[in-house]
Amino acid sequence: MDVRTLLLQQWASCLDQEDWFPPLEKVLEDVTFEQAIWKPVDSMNSIWELVCHLLFYEKRLLMRFLGETDNEPQAEDNKSTFRLPAETLQNWKETKQEYVYVHRELEKILAKSEEEDLYRPIPGERSLVLELKSLAMHDAYHIGQIVFLSKMQGALAGKRSF
Predict the structure, then answer these.
(1) Which stretches make up the DinB-like domain (predicted)?
(2) Given 14, 64, 92, 161, which is the most exposed site by the fewest CB atoms within 10 A?
């Protein structure tokens, strides 16, 4: 199996193809606005904050890959990447939609990239192959947290295919 095929498989497992953990798109399907902003304790992040964090890093990579560094998201520090927009149902829906869009755009880039493009440095980043590998692992880690928060609220019962 070549590196692109392996990464495409990992990338899909984070969004819409079930593997060892449920994919984020499936997990978020039934999460209500109230569940998205809920925190068991103030020191933890909410589901929505975690999605914003994942979106921040994926969107930043996409913008940098496309050479649109003026449009990349900005944050003072990692904690700032969890920041929510105004807490409205519409913004929750838009955050989910934007995350799916950005994730799929990165998937398209990976699928179309020539071998040399996979290893070409991206401004402010390492190569596409290393960044996507790292982001897939990062996504899996936080998807686990989102699954846990969802289960705590009864939002994920019976979603596994096995």
Answers:
(1) 24-146
(2) 161
3-state class (DSSP) for residue 127: strand
What gap in Å lies between CA 98 and CA 52, rounded to an integer?
10
Q: Rounded to whole angstroms, how far apart are CA atoms 104 and 127?
A: 18
Statement: the pTM of the whole predicted model exceeds 0.85:
yes
The length of the chain in residues reads 162
User: Cα-flanking dihedrals φ and ψ of residue 143, to 5°?
Assistant: -60, -40
Return the pLDDT at 158.
57
Least Cα distance to 96 among 9, 24, 158, 17 occurs for: 24
Tell me the per-residue pLDDT of 2-37, one tens digit each, with 9 for 90 and over: 999 999 999 999 999 998 889 999 999 889 999 999
Token digits of residue 130: 């290393």
Q: Is residue 82 classed as helix, strand or coil in its secondary structure?
A: helix
Question: pLDDT tens digits, residue range 37-48?
Answer: 999 999 999 999
- Whether 92 shows a pLDDT value over 60: the answer reads yes
Return d(Cα 160, Cα 22) in angstroms, integer.
7
CA pair distance 76, 104, nearest whole angstrom: 27
Quote the distance between the C-alpha of residue 20 and its chain's center.
Answer: 17
